[in-house]
Write a structure and sequence with these properties.
The complex is a heterotrimer.
Chain A lengths: L4 H11 L7 H12 L4 H10 L4 H8 L13 E6 L2 H5 L2 H12 L12 E6 L11 E3 L2 E3 L4 H13 L27 E3 L12 H7 L3 H10 L12 H10 L6 E6 L8 H8 L1 H15 L3 E6 L7 H13 L16 E6 L9 H8 L23 E5 H13 L1 H5 L2 E2 L2 E2 L1 E8 L5 E6 L4 H7 L5 E6 L5 E4 L17 E6 L4 H15 L5 H18 L5 H17 L3 H5 L2 H9 L1 H5 L16 H12 L8
Parallel strand pairs in A: 1-2, 5-13, 6-7, 6-9, 7-8, 12-16
Antiparallel strand pairs in A: 1-3, 3-4, 10-11, 12-13, 14-15, 14-16
Helix pairs in contact in A: 1-2, 1-3, 3-4, 6-7, 8-12, 8-15, 9-10, 9-12, 12-15, 18-19, 19-20, 20-22
Chain B lengths: L4 E5 L2 E5 L5 H7 L23 E4 L2 E4 L10 E3 L3 H17 L14 H8 L16 E2 L5 E4 L8 H9 L5 E4 L6 E4 L15 H5 L5 E3 L20 H4 L6
Parallel strand pairs in B: 1-5
Antiparallel strand pairs in B: 1-2, 3-4, 3-5, 6-7, 7-10, 8-9
Chain C lengths: L4 E6 L5 H7 L4 H8 L1 E2 L14 E7 L2 E3 H13 E7 L1 H5 L11 H9 L25 E6 L9 E3 L6 H12 L15
Classes of the chains: A alpha/beta, B alpha+beta, C alpha/beta.
Bound molecules: flavin mononucleotide (FMN) and iron/sulfur cluster (SF4).
Chain lengths: 604, 237, 185
């Protein structure tokens, strides 16, 4: 190795100003260079940053893209979400394993290639997909895998993108085979906008009037929780604090969501524009985009857009010539943790900590990033803000349905003819949506991702909007041949893996819920197990500290509510003698029988 | 008067001071709210969730939630007790709590809260984890199978001892308490007199050679439920 | 109507809980006024003579014979009670639960002196008579194998705990043990 670990650590740390808060960038850089952040490296980083070693380890051990043990020069991360699985990701995984001669979680003997699973990488519209380091490969087949592995074996830096995707995916700084799949565009997000148009309109108003305009537009957050954006900005603006911040949530980790990916690819100007408007409105001079590690392939391009905006006077000192309004934006990379999409965990991560959510109150609007009042909004929300500024609150409020105004981007995937992005006005019914995307024989729709709800035919007349079926954008469609309980199991496994582990009910309760579900799926559940699941799920929902735990039982509870017969069909009658049907004596004596070299004298 | 806030806990009207949490106000009024990760002198953590109460019908952790005028808090209801029992049960099955040979037994807060809630046995299946023991230090040891991840040692070491001996590593069910060193507890600057050692509510962080000093029958929670000291304040204000 | 019947057994336990039953001292005389003992080591009745009202289980299940006996108890007892920590959570024997069975055998019987032997065993062989019940992969709490109606924790549960619970059940009162009688050690 040309660069020693010590000199690399020193260089990386000093590039980051030896600032402990830049921990994420530092450990990511070391991981990138050395394939791991070794124990030795942690010691060196701690020393360099004058912090405690356990702080470094607490971060490295938290994020799934970081590791204290060496990984290959190339890490292949196979997306193992349910949509990929339905499209044959198991065959793809087998092909990788066979071609590489290793199993999932292993590294080739020459130390070159590591094969792993990873949760949803935001490519559900082009499945099965995987990441090869930062490069996304899509629509995989065993044949394609063979080709990819051959290329990588010959050269770990091989170019895997033969034909780049549409739009900016073909941009020199992106060069990804990813397709946008914009199936339907609307007037808010996928319509043109002159860079600077929204900012200039905003700068003509007083900051408080900008907030009033956003409030008047009735815009609500697009990240999932649906909080009124104008109100959030007002709280942030009213909160005392020397320095305020604008954070853009581009973590997009909810399984089945990929709309922010397409905005980041096609409309980044609009997003930055909205952030800048927010900066003006709340009197912030710093904006941060928290970009999930899975979208690292977009980073260079986004940096170039930021650079162009700086040179065009849309960022930096005196934005658009407005004296006293300085605003700039930096990109903070994540490192593989769904919980970092939760706004306070996102702040922790930006501060160089484990992605643990923080206790509320104080809310981010009062005390957020670096303890300053902070507004955290979703990528799409900021785009809406820009459009509200450009076209006015009344125009915006005129689209949609009741209290849900504007358009919503839906990321539609699963069993349908045309998966992809649909910009629809709020209020569209599930039936209309299914028709729109060419879904046939639909048995169930998962609205709102893993944390949302699984609905059946009876609910297909309901509307997609805040007051009925709310969604951050994830729509997964399942036809009548799919096993919905297996889907629920997949989602529960996701939550078990992604819980931050801070609070008891979510850390321990989800494991128990998953185990109970597995018992039922194994044909060993009794009717009383359903009640057990319901009461346990209730505890997890009520007692968990953040939105993850407060929604994590939903996959089981909503399938149980809407598809109860599917569970009941798997139940067995309780033993009339009072035995636990879940206990399997044959399995329990298996080890001993093998050691003794004889079977039990009893017939089981 | 503007420097008192009136709120209701389980139908009893009490007075608190601005800036207090629900738990602090309740303590002062002689109302005990069960807890494990909260400890006098440490910043609230909000992680064990045992102190979950309903505030105007919404669940909140009493150790982190500030009081506000007129709030109605439910503490002792069937619903909340069921939730608390579940949480305590989870802590028991998530670790290995062999009370019969644990040095902390009788003085253990987890056990004591379970006693107070009347738990005869957890309703969840035992997980029998293997989280590891660190007995490297001459005077102190860590038994991670008994650790409930309350973070009291982390905070006590940081805020009371000024040391930062402990931290958390891993996430989800893989989350563990870790020491500030590559190797072992013995390589840290922990001292047997550190507040961090005393802060452990369970038998996860213990002094060596001082176990079982108090005979059964004379230990902290043998006769009086945890929280009795707080409840003695009742009516004294 | 005859007196209610009581049965007891010790599975993977140390008989400590049975000692605690005897520790009710002279109340044992009252107890036999209230109940007849059926299958139990106390009277050495080996098989159930018929349906029994209350079964007391000491110990968890570490081998197939324990499972067999426990199921026999469940089948024959109207009310089944886990008595003591071993019955409830496996207790001290469950310390082996995260060690593979093979390693446990090696620790006990191997002549490789890095591992054992914990018992004098010059042959180094693991005892393997067909009469010996096979060990389970881990020690199971009783409630994982059959439904349990009541749990009396303790190692062992205090004699008073057992007494109070018995009296409540035999006199059709709810089992509501006072604070001092629920102890895990
Ligand atoms: C576990 C969890 C994950 C989340 N992930 C995201 C995410 O990936 N993107 C997002 O915008 N919001 C996410 N949120 C919601 C954020 O906490 C927050 O509400 C949102 O970013 C606010 O922006 P908005 O008001 O513009 O929607 C998540 C919330 C939780 C509880
Ligand atoms: S609910 Fe889950 S993710 Fe949220 S703080 Fe608790 S453990 Fe962490």
């Amino acid at each position: 190795m040309s660069e020693t670990l010590e000199s690399a650590v020193k260089a990386v740390c000093s590039e980051c100003g030896n600032d402990r808060e830049r921990m994420m960038d530092i450990v990511r850089a070391i991981q990138g260079k050395f394939g791991c952040v070794s124990s030795e490296a942690m010691d060196m980083i701690a020393k360099q940053l004058a912090t405690h070693r356990v702080e470094v380890e607490s971060v490295v051990s938290f994020y799934s893209f970081l590791s204290d043990r060496p990984k290959g020069k190339v890490v292949i991360r196979l997306c193992d979400d349910i949509i990929d699985e339905m499209a044959g990701s198991a065959d793809v995984a087998n092909a990788f394993a066979t071609e590489l001669g290793i199993g999932i979680g292993e590294t080739t003997a020459d130390g070159k290639i590591t094969l792993e699973h990873t949760p949803c990488i935001g490519m559900c519209d082009q499945v099965p997909a995987a990441m090869v380091n930062d490069v996304v490969v899509t629509n995989l087949t065993p044949a394609k895998v063979k080709d990819i592995v051959a290329k990588l074996k010959a050269d770990v830096d091989a170019d895997l993108v033969d034909a780049p995707g549409d739009g900016n995916n073909a941009n020199d700084l992106v060069k990804a085979m990813v397709q946008n799949n914009i199936q339907q565009s609307g007037d808010v997000i996928f319509a043109g906008m002159e860079p600077g148009a929204a900012i200039k309109k905003a700068l003509e108003m007083a900051p408080k009037d900008v907030i009033a305009e956003v409030t008047k537009s009735k815009l609500r957050g697009r990240g999932g929780a649906g909080f009124p954006t104008g109100l959030k900005w007002k709280f942030t603006s009213d909160a005392p604090g020397a320095e305020k911040f604008v954070l853009c949530n581009a973590d997009e980790g909810e399984p089945g969501t990929f709309k922010d990916r397409v905005i980041l690819t096609e409309q980044p100007d609009m997003m930055f524009e909205g952030m800048t408007v927010a900066g003006y409105a709340i009197d912030a001079s710093t904006g941060v985009v928290y970009l999930r590690a899975e979208y690292a392939y977009l980073r260079e391009y986004l940096e170039s857009v930021l650079a162009r905006r700086r040179s065009d006077g849309l960022l930096g000192k005196s934005v658009c010539g407005k004296d006293g309004f300085d605003f700039d934006i930096r990109i903070q990379m994540g490192a593989g943790a769904y919980i970092c999409g939760e706004e306070t965990a996102l702040i922790s991560s930006c501060e160089g900590l484990r992605g643990d959510p923080k206790n509320r109150p104080p809310f981010p609007a009062q005390e957020g990033y670096k303890a300053g009042p902070t507004t955290v909004n979703n990528v799409e929300t900021f785009c809406c803000c820009a459009r509200v500024m450009e076209k006015g609150a009344d125009w915006f409020a005129g689209i949609g349905d009741g209290q849900s105004v504007g358009t919503k981007l839906l990321s539609i995937s699963g069993d349908c003819g045309k998966p992809g992005i649909y910009e629809v006005p709020f209020g569209i019914t599930v039936d209309e949506m299914l028709k729109m995307c060419g879904a046939k024989d639909t048995a169930a729709v998962q609205v709102g991702g893993a944390s949302g709800q699984m609905i059946g035919k009876n609910d297909f007349g309901r509307k997609i909007c805040y007051d009925d079926l709310a969604t951050g954008g994830s729509i997964m469609i399942f036809n009548s041949k799919r096993d919905l309980l297996k889907v629920a199991e997949k989602f529960m496994e996701f939550f078990v893996d992604e819980s931050c582990g801070y609070c008891t009910p979510c850390r321990a309760g989800n494991v128990l819920l998953l185990n109970a579900l597995k018992t039922i799926l194994a044909g060993k559940g009794e009717a009383s197990d359903l009640e057990y699941i319901e009461t346990l799920g209730n505890t997890v929902i009520k007692a968990s500290r953040c939105g993850l735990g407060q929604t994590s039982p939903n996959p089981i509870l909503t399938t149980l509510k809407n598809f109860r017969p599917a569970y009941e069909a798997l139940l067995v009658a309780p033993s009339k003698d009072g035995y636990q049907v879940s206990f399997d004596i044959k399995a329990a004596v298996g080890d001993a029988a093998a050691i003794a070299g004889r079977d039990s004298v009893h017939a089981y | 008067m503007s420097d008192t806030i009136t709120l209701t806990i389980d139908g009893v009207e009490i007075q608190g001071k601005p800036g207090q949490t629900i738990m602090e106000a309740a303590d002062a009024a002689g109302i005990y709210i069960p807890r494990l990760c909260a400890m006098d002198g440490l910043v609230p953590h909000g992680s064990c969730r045992v102190c979950t109460v309903m505030v105007n019908g919404r669940p909140q952790s009493a150790c982190t939630q500030p009081i506000a005028p007129g709030i109605v808090v439910d503490n002792e209801t069937d619903e909340i007790n069921a939730i608390r029992r579940d949480i305590v049960d989870m802590l028991f099955v998530e670790g290995n709590h062999f009370c019969m040979f644990c040095e902390k037994s009788g003085n253990c807060e987890l056990q004591a809260v379970a006693y107070r809630l009347g738990i005869a046995a957890p309703r969840f299946p035992f997980q029998f984890p293997d989280c590891g023991i660190d007995a490297s230090h001459p005077d102190i040891f860590i038994d991670r199978d008994r650790c409930i991840l309350c973070g009291r040692c982390v905070r006590a070491s940081q805020d009371l001892d000024g040391k930062d001996v402990f931290g958390f590593v891993g996430r989800g069910s893989e989350k563990r308490i870790a020491v500030n060193s590559d190797a072992k507890l013995k390589d840290t600057n922990i001292d047997v007199t550190d507040k961090a050692v005393e802060a452990c509510p369970v038998g996860a962080l213990l002094k060596k050679r001082v176990g079982f000093a108090v005979p059964i029958g004379q230990r902290k929670y043998d006769h009086k439920p945890i929280g009795s000291d707080i409840e003695q304040n009742k009516g004294s204000l | 109507m005859g007196k209610p019947k009581l049965a007891t057994t010790s599975l993977c336990g140390c008989f400590g809980c049975h000692m605690s039953v005897l520790d009710i001292d002279d109340r044992i005389l009252k107890l036999i006024e209230l109940v007849d003992f059926d299958k139990s080591p106390i009277d050495d009745i080996k098989e159930f003579t018929g349906p029994v009202d209350i079964g007391l289980i000491e110990g968890g299940c570490c081998n197939e014979e324990n499972v067999h006996v426990l199921k026999d108890f469940r089948k024959n007892c109207k009310i089944l009670i886990s008595v003591g920590d071993c019955a409830i959570d496996g207790g001290i024997p469950a310390l082996r639960n995260n060690i593979p069975l093979k390693e446990c055998f090696d620790e006990a019987y191997s002549t490789d002196n890095r591992l054992g032997p914990a018992v004098l065993n010059p042959s180094g062989k693991v005892p393997n008579d067909p009469e010996l019940p096979l060990l389970l992969d881990r020690v199971y709490p009783c409630s994982e194998i059959v439904k349990i109606d009541y749990h009396l924790p303790g190692c062992p549960p205090p004699a008073d705990t057992i007494w109070e619970a018995m009296v409540a059940l035999l006199t059709d009162k709810p089992v509501a043990l006072p604070y001092e009688l629920i102890k895990y050690d």
